[in-house]
UniProtKB/TrEMBL annotation:
Chain coiled-coil ranges: 83-120
Organism in which the protein naturally occurs: Nocardioides humilatus
Domain of life: Bacteria
CDD domains: HTH_MerR-like_sg3
Name listed for the protein in its UniProt record: MerR family transcriptional regulator
Keyword Protease among record annotations: no
S-adenosyl-L-methionine is among the record's keywords: no
SUPFAM superfamilies reported in the protein's UniProt record: Putative DNA-binding domain
Annotated TM spans: none
Length: 123
C-alpha cells in the first residue's frame, strides 16, 4: 500500500508517517517506481507508535515496542525492553509529580503567608 492508504488506515497524517520513517521507526520497501510500499504490519506499528506518543512517550522511547512487534509478537509490550520503557516512563512521571507537588506546596505556603500578612495590615 502507498503512504496515503497507510496513514488513513492507521489514523494518522502522511506527515506523521514520514516523521516515523525519518526516525527509523518504519522502513518501507520501495516499489519499482520508487514509491514507498507498506504492508499490514506497518499499519499495526504506526497505530502502536501513535498510541505510545499519546501517552507521552517520545519517538525514541517507542523503539523497543516497535522492535517487539517486528520480532513477530502480537503485542508491542511483551518484550523485556518494552517493559523497561514503561518502567522508565513511569519513573519520570513520578519524578515530575513530586516536583510539581513541591512547587504547589511552596506556592500554597506563600499564598497563605501573603493572605495572613494582608489581613494583619487591614484595619
Amino acid at each position: 500500500m502507498q503512504i496515503k492508504e497507510l496513514a488513513d488506515r492507521a489514523g494518522v497524517t502522511v506527515k506523521a508517517v514520514r516523521y516515523y520513517e525519518s526516525r527509523g521507526l518504519i522502513t518501507p520497501d520501495r516499489a519499482g517506481n520508487g514509491y514507498r510500499d507498506y504492508d499490514d504490519n506497518d499499519v499495526q506499528v504506526v497505530r502502536e507508535i501513535r498510541a505510545l506518543l499519546s501517552l507521552g512517550l517520545t519517538a525514541a522511547e517507542t523503539v523497543p515496542f516497535v522492535d517487539c512487534l517486528r520480532a513477530g509478537n502480537d503485542r508491542a509490550d511483551v518484550c523485556p525492553a518494552s517493559l523497561e520503557a514503561y518502567r522508565s516512563r513511569i519513573a519520570e512521571i513520578d519524578r515530575r509529580i513530586s516536583e510539581l507537588t513541591g512547587l504547589r506546596d511552596e506556592l500554597t505556603e506563600l499564598l497563605h503567608d501573603a493572605e495572613s500578612y494582608r489581613s494583619e495590615e487591614t484595619p
